[in-house]
Amino acid sequence: MKKSFFLLFTLLAIVLCFPLVTQASPLVYPTERISGQDRVATALSISQKGWDSAQTVILCEYSDYPDSIASTPFAVSLNAPILLTAGGSIDERVVTELQRLKPKKVILLGGIACLKPSIGNELDNLSLKWERIGGTDRYETSVLLAKHLTSDSLILANGDDFPDALSAATFAGIKQIPIVLTSKSLPHSVIEYYKETGPKHLIVIGGEFVIPSNDLTTNKFAVETRLGGQDRYETNAKVISFMKDAYQSNDFYLASGITFPDAVAGTVLASKDKAPLLLTEKEDIPPSIYSLMRKHMKVEPSSQSTNDNSKEGMTTASGGLNLRETPSSTSKILSTIPKDTTINLIDQQDQWYKTTYQSKTGWISANYVTPTTATVDSSVNGTVHILGGTGIISSKSQNIIEGKASSTYADNLKSFPSLPSEIKTTDLPSKGEDVDTPPVVTPPVDTPPVVTPPVSTTYDPTQEVLVNPFQGIPDNALAGKTIMIDPGHGGPDTGAIGPNHTYEKNNNLAIGLALNSILQQAGAKVILTRDTDISPATDYSENEDLKARVELANKTNPDLFICIHNDSFSNPAVQGTSTYYYDDNPKQAESLKLAKSIQSSVINTLQTNDRGVKEANFYVLHYTTMPSILLEAAFISSPYEEARLQNPTFQNNVASAIFQGIYNYYKSPLS
């Protein structure tokens, strides 16, 4: 008994000594490290990446952050890289970089206490014109920098530490909004600057502890927005989320939230690229930053690719490969899998693989299957540019970002909404875009591939019973309401294509037209983004198509925006209904309530598998300004649900369920 207990204890100890190497929802980003052997060299690497030449260069003291943290908007206005040096003399490496950049002027940032007069003498010897911007303290220096910019907005950040100002730096650089530094009590120079300029929009970075409201109120600072979190990383995440519309790049820049120099130099490059700057710890990614990065992703490895017991393969039999009931050539044939079909290999027994095809699980001969390695092209997620060497942001953190290691934070190990392993052209509007401008693609052809034989299903259309949409609902229940219906895809864009060659665009339109009729009978005014098989864009591209839908919605300003789609997945056995909203929609609370109401009504009416209400950054949900949802009514990739979607009775029932969900949304006002 003692031996057994000792063995159990030993095994438990071994398990606990090794961290888990998998997690529910990993980050999967390509990375680039921009670094040097020290902070001076890192700033040089940043300069060399972003500038071939420069009219102006800004020179800062490498260990004195206060004068430099508010400099980003000014530097961006001059397209000037920030270089670092010691305060007593110019580093030889910096001299070499100045010779490469060939600036007409160098600006010394800070007073003579941080950059000694000898620096100016050295610049004179190099035949370089220079000037100094520096106040009596960090706060006055930030005011002097602010006076070089013209804006009706102002960002106020605590200058006693650097993270809050850095969080807003790239946004301020892109929008050319000055950053002015303060302390817990407002410095006289800051009060006078505010009185002189009278900015219309004041954004405060940080919570009450770092910038108390009492002093702001006393001095008549009219705060329009305050962004603060429990720590520097949560503040950083909130700032980036709030200011997301300013960013046009799909990339991130990542800097240390502990040491400032690499981040200061990197903010100007990030602003040039119109990309956000994230802050992180050395050895791990803080949960607030991890969550933001995870939500930004578009693809991740499939669950099969992370499971050692599962892999993929492609069939090679020219006449099709028989799927048999048992691993035997004499066993009953369940189906025939066409050549070049990619399948999941669930298990192996001798020369037979177990797999599922069109909802049927059986065995296929391994002689006609080429195993493949499931890969994911993570480049579509964007690149994370890491500022600094491994002594600043460790290799472990880099591995977490690349999906090669797991975070030690429990909050980072939770399950986020799953993502596809690839982005398919025809699926983009259903799955949404997370960038300001969707990728431009060649329109899909109108003629689907011919595949034989047709896929059979057990669906019996006679079992679909038409529901009365107005049962228990008073007449003119939606009088005075304007509702926009957006049937997804259309025209050259077929959307997803079912196993029996049906088009998602046709299903979406049929449901949309049925909903239009019901809503009008209920007294609502209805606006359709399309009422025939067309794209709402004048000149079709996915870019213009999505923009046209959003522009029409925001121009007409309906009370609700209802987007209709079919779902699709590589596994034909997956079925069900889901409804999406977006957390950062201006009407987030209303969108969530509407999504819950419609999801509940659709599930009760259709009796489909409830896949839940989900948050996602879909293009049409991101950029519409009214309560907005996207319904994935059923899976067109499932032969059974594909058949249901083709049934006019089912289409009308989906429309009835959406209407009842809208009615219930208005029946119970948001508290």
Please explain how this structure is put together:
This protein has about 675 residues and is an alpha/beta fold. Among the domains are: about 35-135, 3-Layer(aba) Sandwich (Rossmann fold); about 305-370, SH3 type barrels; about 480-665, Aminopeptidase (3-Layer(aba) Sandwich). The protein is about 35% helix and about 20% strand. It is built from 20 helices and 26 strands. A six-stranded mixed sheet has the order 22-21-23-26-24-25. It has a four-stranded parallel sheet with strand order 1-20-10-11, sandwiched between helices. It has a four-stranded parallel sheet with strand order 3-2-4-5. Helix 2 runs parallel beside helix 11, helix 3 (about 70-80) packs across helix 11 (about 260-270) and helix 7 (about 165-175) runs parallel beside helix 10 (about 230-240). It is globular and about 90 Å long.
Write a concise synopsis of the structure shown:
Among the domains are: 36-134, 3-Layer(aba) Sandwich (Rossmann fold); 303-372, SH3 type barrels; 482-667, Zn-dependent exopeptidases (Aminopeptidase). It has 20 helices and 26 strands. Strand 17 and strand 18 form a beta hairpin.
Layout: helices, strands, pairs:
Elements: H1 2-17, E1 31-34, H2 39-50, E2 56-61, H3 72-78, E3 82-85, H4 92-101, E4 105-109, H5 117-125, E5 129-133, H6 138-146, E6 153-158, H7 163-175, E7 179-182, H8 188-197, E8 201-205, H9 213-218, E9 225-227, H10 232-242, E10 252-256, H11 261-272, E11 277-280, H12 287-296, E12 311-315, E13 321-324, E14 333-337, E15 342-345, E16 347-349, E17 352-357, E18 360-365, E19 369-372, E20 384-387, H13 395-402, H14 428-431, E21 482-487, H15 504-521, E22 525-528, H16 542-556, E23 560-567, E24 577-581, H17 588-606, E25 610-615, H18 619-623, E26 628-635, H19 639-646, H20 648-667
Helix pairs in contact: 2-11, 3-7, 3-11, 7-10, 7-11, 10-12, 15-20, 17-20
